[in-house]
Amino acid sequence: MAERNFKESFKFYKARFPAPDLSEVLDVDNASEETCSPFKAQTSGSNPFPLILKPPDKWLCYEVNNRPGLIFIRNPFTALGQRYWVVRSVRDYPQAPNVVNLIPKKFEKEVIDDWWRAFRSAKDPKFRENLKASMRWATLGYHHDWDTKVYSESMKNVFPTDLREMTKFFAKALGYGKYSAEAAIVNFYPLGTTLSGHTDHSEADLDAPLFSFSFGQKAIFLIGGPTKEEPATALFLRSGDVVVMSKQSRLCYHAVPRVMKDCLEPWKNLGESSTTVCEKDEVEQPNCKKMKEETSDLLAELLDDCRDDSFWKPFQSYLETTRININIRQVLKDGQTSL
Ligand SMILES: O=C(O)CCC(=O)C(=O)O
């Protein structure tokens, strides 16, 4: 059979009947070095998130050989760290003034301003289900304009410090140097939903990589070339996985043709995360200091909450049928202060 192009692959992996053959989907857990080249993250300095991230020298990092610049890190998060980002994504990031997909024609202001609270307090089961299924994205920092695809200074809110600092840490560990997370889309995918093929080209700095953090249920991620006529590579993304689109991959077509139930639930085993807490006596770095000052209270408090199963239970239940993806971009060029 002739090789499928991006459009055909999207259709193939999206199909319900018959269900697609997934044997060609790249699974880094079983991939050979011919497909994925392993490499080590740079480990100088301390891990500013010891309870959230495994130590960088333990990360499993790969470059996908037929997709130069496509980096994959297999779940560098602790179980507690996964819980932390799920709570931030579900409870906090969709709150006003951040922008969400829910529209005033369909929902009351209280729902749009604080979706998780409205969802949790909804009494009518049908309305609750509707609220659950309706949340599809929240935008942070420079808000993505889905129609014009142009960022503007007038559509911008403060970017969360914890997310900015963690992304900066990943950028440093992968050798990208300076990185400033300035826009994010938090995508919510109920099982069975998809994201169609697109490129991300609205940013002033198209050389700065795009970081993508996945939590919850499993997905097939498709990445092709600069047009939809070229062939695509399909990869499994599981909870905790990080994808970085850099260099030649930065402007390539990508999509999520399938979100499916995973039997792994790496956010469950908190015992594991406590064993990955790393060195206490490492030297503090200046960029971590600011993060710690600004977020340490929130971080410590939320991490404590996340250890509590009764606090975690509603998030666990939401995650059983949902995939979350936090997709991060640097918008401005190095040295630029506004658009
Ligand atoms: O969900 C994903 O893995 C990809 C999301 C994405 O491509 C985007 O937000 O632009």
Automatic annotation (TrEMBL):
Binding residues annotated for Fe cation, in chain numbering: 198, 200, 254
Domain of life from the UniProt record: Eukaryota
GO cellular component: cytoplasm; nucleus
GO biological processes: oxidative RNA demethylation
This protein's name: Fe2OG dioxygenase domain-containing protein
UniProt keyword annotation of Metal-binding present: yes
UniProt cross-references to PANTHER family, sorted A to Z: ALKYLATED DNA REPAIR PROTEIN ALKB-RELATED, NUCLEIC ACID DIOXYGENASE ALKBH1
UniProt entry tagged with the keyword Oxidoreductase: yes
Keyword vocabulary terms for this entry: Dioxygenase, Iron, Metal-binding, Oxidoreductase
GO terms, molecular function: broad specificity oxidative DNA demethylase activity; ferrous iron binding; oxidative RNA demethylase activity
InterPro entries registered for this protein in UniProt: Alkb, AlkB-like, AlkB-like_sf, Oxoglu/Fe-dep_dioxygenase_dom
Cofactor needs: Fe(2+)
Domain Fe2OG dioxygenase: 180-332
Organism: Hermetia illucens (Black soldier fly)
